[in-house]
Amino acid sequence: MSCVVPMEATDTTIQRAGATGNIKATREDWLKLALETLISDGVERVRVLTLGQKLDVSRSSFYWYFKSRQDLLDQLLDYWRQTNTRFIVERAMRPSATVIRGVMSIFECWVDERLFDPQLDFAIRAWARRSPAIRRALDEADEERVNAIRDMFMRHGYDEEDAFVRARVLYFMQIGYYSLELNEPMSSRLAQVALYLRSFTGQEPPAEDVEEFSRYVEETISRKR
């Protein structure tokens, strides 16, 4: 997986000798590698010595950027909050003329992994099974995401209980989809967009809205190529 960690890097860098001369290991290098390791191998493998060996820098260089391993883990957790949770909430809060449009905005998170990275989300869920503190953070994130979607439905006239159930169905269905690792072609999913919109909202989606979302998907896929 290609991880882009949009965290502000410090100007200080550590020089390491290599076959091609001096190479800089930045704070972003540490964060990017730690994030990739968390996703591929789990939190137990996010170790200062292991990361330093992979970066070919001394372990002491780590402490130019981080107070401790726990500081690094805290920053990884914050990165997850500032991406996966933040973008779902932002899309749910986006002004929309209709509930169909509101749901389509949330659907963008399921299409563009720059908005929601399912591998990162499940790395956090695996971590939560080992840590009560991470479990609490995960529960809070799930609640925040569902509540944001619920509020979107309420803004479009659904009563609170109806909006809450629809939000849970929309959100947890997608989390379950990722959990089961279903490898369904995007073309198949797109063919069912109108049915999903109708199921989640109880309203008939206009053809032009479905077409617009299909164009968004195609453009997103094109960017990845």
UniProtKB/TrEMBL annotation:
Q: PROSITE patterns under this entry?
A: HTH_TETR_2 (PS50977)
Give the organism, scientific name.
Answer: Mesorhizobium kowhaii
Q: HTH tetR-type domain: which residues?
A: 24-84
Q: Name one GO molecular function term.
A: DNA binding
Pfam families tied to this protein: TetR_N
Which residues does UniProt assign to DNA binding? Answer: 47-66
Q: Which SUPFAM superfamilies match?
A: Homeodomain-like
Protein name from the UniProt record: TetR family transcriptional regulator
Q: Which InterPro entries match?
A: Homeodomain-like_sf, HTH_TetR
Keyword annotations for this protein? DNA-binding
